[in-house]
Amino acid sequence: MRLPTVPLGRSGELIGAQGLGCMGMSEFYGPTDTAEALATLDAALEAGITLFDTADIYGSGANEELIGPFVRANRDQVVLATKFAIERRADDPTYRAVRNDPAYIRTAVDASLRRLGVDVIDLYYMHRRDPAVPLAESVGAMAELVQAGKVRELGLSEVTGDELREAHAVHPIAALQSEWSLFSRDVERTAVPAAAELGVTFVPYSPLGRGFLTGSFAAAEQLTEDDYRRYHPQFSGPNAAANAALIAPIQKIAADRGVTTAQIALAWVHQRAEVHGLTVVPIPGTRKRTRLAENTAAATLRLTTAELAALEPIAGQVTGTRYADMSSTSAGRE
Ligand SMILES: NC(=O)c1ccc[n+]([C@@H]2O[C@H](COP(=O)([O-])OP(=O)(O)OC[C@H]3O[C@@H](n4cnc5c(N)ncnc54)[C@H](OP(=O)(O)O)[C@@H]3O)[C@@H](O)[C@H]2O)c1
Fold first, then answer.
1. What pTM was estimated for this model as a whole?
2. Of 156, 259, 291, which is best to mutate to test ligand 1, by the most ligand atoms within 8 angstroms of its C-beta?
3. Closest listed residue to residue 213, CA positions, set 256, 259, 261, 179
């Protein structure tokens, strides 16, 4: 089965209704296997996935370098999305600074183009918002990249509804990428309604709750030492056991339907978007070919009204925030 297609904002372009999150292929989610990652990229395209999501910070540039050859080999079919705004330092692995100033943006885009080995980025996102820099300045600098032919479409990540409106008035925004899943629904307050109103495609990240919604791990201690989810507030300490118990209704529906919990979680995001009247392209992350048929099939799986009602209370019961520091998320500024 190939994925259906949906519009990317008002760009006129059609993209596969589910994308591929490439982050875990280079960092954050434990051991990586380059050969399997590259095979997964090819298999994803075969399955109808066209939107491939990376960022300059994933592996400090390594993820852009990893997917570059694949993108170049399939340039006409791939919609390449990358991001700027989170600065890292080689001498301090924990260092992070949010940078939205035009000079930084101009340097960041050239570095991404070089690592990817391409002339143009199809969708360039501002990864995080620095409220100290006027949004019009940042989006203005991003619009200049479009005029210069370095970028085709603009996106934002983790902005509020008002920030999305303000940015869209400076230059059309094609996509908003923020966390949205059965566990994380704060975007439904302001960001989702604004995206629906403006015709912005919503790209839900971590639609599988970073893997937790699939039941593949139930506590931080089950993850390897290098897995950053060990420090995630929802997966550590007493929160982990309380949150793991919330998965039971997802597992029951999956068992009754003869599908997987990952498929129920993904189908929920696709269907929840219909309620809000907007286009979504969730980007489940995987490093493995075996997940692709499973995840893409979820895009056309329909949940019943009773199943949706059973899933409705979950997010309201989740304990722990979705980041230790929420200040650079949309919910942290609403
Ligand atoms: N804009 C932002 O701030 C932001 C933040 C985070 C992520 N992202 C983007 O969003 C993408 C997706 O988010 P995410 O990777 O954080 O979380 P996710 O998609 O919710 O979950 C990814 C995890 O689920 C596992 N998984 C995938 N399919 C599965 C299946 N069918 N059954 C069981 N496990 C499955 C993956 O493991 P395997 O690899 O073993 O399959 C991985 O550990 C990232 O890759 C990245 O591109 C953006």
1. 0.98
2. 291
3. 261
